[in-house]
Design goal:
The protein is an alpha/beta fold. 40% of the residues lie in helices and 14% in strands.
């Protein structure tokens, strides 16, 4: 038996059930109605670091969100067969529930198979987009299957009433891509990870951490690391995030190592041990690594670009060249332990501006705008 073909047929059959007029004959887990008529749809992404526990925003938006984690196979990794079943059940449950709502907000539209399809146009549809604009264009997909999925997802999103983005630099481009929608820049939230903060002690090595992803400026990072090797023997550069990119970065750098993190807690532990979060970036989309650093009290040194400035705190410093980055690192790391601990405490205080309570407040303001726009029509 062709197992992969069988899995695909099972998934397709569940999606077929979703689009039938007589959608659900079986019994799904019962859920009590939301306060008001707003439905929040989300789940906890199982990949370490992905969205940095963004699911913790849900309780600030609804006492009873539509949560995929309440359904079978929720603990499975994204793209596994079990997770496909979980998300398919979630789509069915969500569709059934959304028909009775006035507004539905998809917190993680990038992982949904169905986005508002089959729902009445009277229901206001909102999505929070976590990636750069290029990630939503079908022509940038890696293969034909992903291209078809991207095309379907983009077509669905173009019918939405509200789009929330986390990168102000691309706001106008998103408005052109989604002309029907009201596009709003709202910072993603965090919660306090002060428990992971490791106080600085006199005489210990300086740890500089970089969360590697496709936007990391590897060339600048290597220039700084290699220059520091002969001058500052007590500096240790750690990388995490995308393992392939991280290993490419540390190759040939004796003063650099990969910091493994298998879950959210271990990732926050790595962040909390750092003296500085070093983020050379070619361009910055939603800067979740910066928020993670803030939440642990770790100051950030990053490239001077708009995507970074959106997420800056009072302790964030920026640079334009590798030479400038090295000078700023030296300035920050040469301070005595008590002063560096003060910087960490100030970072924790500044991070409060990014807490989920603030994000939720901005979301509710956006919902009110959308309801007001609907009333005018």
């Amino acid at each position: 038996m062709n197992l992969s073909g069988f899995k695909g047929k099972c998934t397709n059959y569940i999606l077929y059930l979703l689009n039938r007029d007589n959608i659900i004959t079986g019994k799904m887990p019962e859920q009590s109605p939301d306060n008001g008529s707003i439905i929040i749809a989300g789940f906890r992404h199982p990949m370490p670091g992905a969205f940095f526990a963004y699911d913790l925003l849900m309780p600030f938006l609804s006492e009873n969100p539509a949560d995929a984690d309440s359904l079978p196979f929720s603990g499975k990794q994204i793209h596994t067969f079990g997770r496909r079943i979980n998300m398919s059940l979630f789509e069915i449950s969500l569709w059934k529930r959304a028909r009775k709502g006035d507004l539905i907000h998809y917190l993680f539209p990038e992982q949904h198979y169905v986005l508002g399809e089959g729902l009445s146009d009277k229901i206001i549809k909102v999505a929070t987009l976590h990636r750069n604009l290029q990630a939503y264009l079908p022509e940038n997909a890696r293969n034909l299957r992903l291209k078809a999925l991207a095309s379907r997802r983009l077509a669905a999103l173009k019918k939405f009433d509200g789009i929330i983005i986390h990168n102000s630099e691309e706001a106008e481009d998103f408005r052109k891509l989604f002309p029907k929608a009201k596009v709003k820049f709202i910072l993603p939230g965090i919660h306090s990870n002060a428990a992971y903060l490791k106080p600085v002690t006199a005489g210990h090595s300086r740890h500089i951490y970089t969360y590697a992803d496709k936007d990391t400026d590897i060339h600048t990072w290597k220039d700084v690391v290699q220059a520091a090797a002969g001058i500052f023997p007590d500096w240790v550069f750690k990388t995490g995030g995308n393992r392939r990119i991280a290993e490419e970065m540390i190759e040939g750098c004796e003063n650099a190592a990969f910091a493994k993190a298998e879950d959210y807690e271990s990732l926050m532990t790595v962040f909390g041990k750092a003296d500085i979060h070093f983020m050379p970036a070619l361009h910055a989309g939603p800067s979740s690594p910066m928020l993670a650093a803030h939440s642990c009290g770790v100051p950030t040194l990053a490239s001077d670009i708009q995507g970074v400035r959106d997420y800056a705190t009072a302790t964030t410093r920026t640079f334009s060249t590798a030479r400038e980055a090295l000078v700023l690192l030296e300035q920050e790391l040469k301070f005595e332990a008590h002063k560096r601990n003060n910087v960490k405490q100030n970072t924790l205080i500044s991070a409060m501006d990014f807490y989920f309570e603030e994000t939720a407040r901005h979301y509710f303001e956006f919902y009110e705008e959308l309801f007001a726009d609907r009333t005018k029509k």
